[in-house]
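Reviewer comment 2.1 asked that we show a complete input and output for one of the modelled complexes. We chose the adenine case, as it is the one discussed in the main text.
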Amino acid sequence: MKIDILTLFPNMFDSFFKESIIKRAIENNKVEINVIDFREYSKDPHKKVDDTPYGGGAGMVLTCQPIFDCVNSIRTPESKVIILTPSGKLYKQETAYDLSKESHLIIICGHYEGFDERILSLADLQLSIGDYVLTGGEIPALVLVDSITRLIDGVITKESHENDSFNNNLLDYPTYTKPADYNGMKVPEVLISGDHKKIDEYRKQEQIRKTKENRPDLLK
Ligand code: ADE
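Response of the prediction step:
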């Protein structure tokens, strides 16, 4: 998969892609990630990319020309264009699974007060990562890249994400490792029993218990 990220702050991405699973996915050619500074596409003599809003109001608004020119120069019929905005649809694991099957994602990060509304016509998908407002789309872009890349075939084992939280609308079951007794806090007996049928049942019950406790909305 190829992922192009359009941003005004390319340096924000540097270290993230050089560590851990994403680094390995890049090295193993499972994903190619390009960070593009869309200011370079501005035809303004001062490389301006924003302007004041029509009708008045606070802040600056990203203008059409640099983003349209940038997207139109890199998109192909296979590309999926995603705009990150707090006004988008809520991003969920299900969408991460769908997007992990695509061959080319173009992710557009906003900044300042937002996008000229006409820029939204470029998007196949407008996504928000949660009900809060960030200073820009860079952290949401990292959230997308991370959650999608780990689901690309061959990046981590299928087993590693089979029981992820949110699959089947349930949170993940609790896990433990050695020692079996840490300062009097003991690992549940069943996990040491070697009885795999019982372990499966215990884990399912724990998934339901945790979901009821932390995310009852998922069970509705
Ligand atoms: N830009 C600013 N806040 C955002 C959010 N919550 N999701 C996506 N993009 C954003």
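Residues 84-86, 110, 128-130, 132-134, 136-137, 140 surround adenine (CB under 6 Å). We note this here for comparison with the apo prediction described in Section 3.2.
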